[in-house]
Amino acid sequence: MEQRDYILREIEKIGAIIMAIRQKLFGGTDEPAISVENQAEALKEMMLSEVFIDLDDLLSLDAAATDEYLAGMKGFNVENIELLAATMADIGFTVTAADARLLLQKALHLYEICNRRDRTYSFAREAQITRIRELLPDGMRFDETY
C-alpha cells in the first residue's frame, strides 16, 4: 500500500512539474512566456533541474532506447510522457529547422510510446502524430525506427 502511494505521488509530481514547465515556456496569466528563440534551451535547463532528465541525452536516443529510458524513470506514465511529447512538439512547431526536426522526431517517438503502452485510442494523440509526420520531410514512421 505504501509503495503504491509513493508511485502515485511520483506520477502526480512529474505531471505537475511538466505542467509548470509548459506554463513557463508558453506563458499564462501571471508571467510572460519565454521567447520562441529561447524555448528549446529553457526546456533543456528546466528538464535537467526539475525532472533530472538531460534533454540532449534523451534527444540522442533512438525510439527503443527512449522507451527503455523512460520505463526506468519514476513518474513517467502514459499521461506524463504524452505531456512531454506535446511540450516538445509545441516547441518544434516554432523553432528553426535543425532544432525542430530533433524535437519533432522525439515527440513522435514519445507519442508512439504512448500508443504502445496505452490500449485506449486517442484522437488527439493521433492528430498530433499526423501533424508531426506532415512536417517531417521523410514522414518518419515509428515502426521503421524501432
Percentage of β-strand residues:
under 5%
Shape: globular
Helix content: over 70%
Q: What is the N-to-C succession of helices and strands?
A: HHHHHHHH
Provide the number of structural domains: 1
Count of individual beta strands: 0
Let me know the average pLDDT.
86
- Radius of gyration in whole Å, from Cα? 15 Å
- What's the helix count? 8
SSE layout and pairing:
Layout: H1 2-26, H2 36-51, H3 55-60, H4 63-71, H5 78-92, H6 97-117, H7 123-135, H8 142-145
Helix pairs in contact: 1-2, 1-5, 5-6, 6-7
Overview of this protein structure:
The protein has 146 residues and is mainly α. The chain has one domain (2-145). It is built from 8 helices and no strands. The longest helix is centred in the first third of the chain and has 25 residues, at 2-26. Mean pLDDT is 86; it is low at 142-146.
